[in-house]
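Lecture 7 notes: from sequence to structure.
We start with the chain below.
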Amino acid sequence: MKSKSGKYITFLPDNRIVLVSQKDQSVLDIAVRESLPLNHTCGGFGTCGTCRIFVREGLENLPPRNEVEMEMAGDRGFADYERLACQTEPIDGLVCEIPPKA
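Predicted structure tokens for the same chain:
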């Protein structure tokens, strides 16, 4: 869903499409604003790894992982499509899946 009035991202498995506002800084910020069940324990600093998401569409349009996320991904053995919501920019058309709680 694209619109001239803003950009949208989709959260799976609920297929919830949400508007990205000017004030949103990360995918985690949007999930918190929308009361989505995305774990996060470190306050969005990228040190806990609990806000892991699976990028299902738009991965090729995301910027590379930053240093914080690169270290976590290396330590935890993340696949390319696994990203930290707190370190991921909410680009238009992004589709991300919130994994089930372990």
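Points to note: The longest strand covers residues 7-12. The chain has a mean pLDDT of 91.
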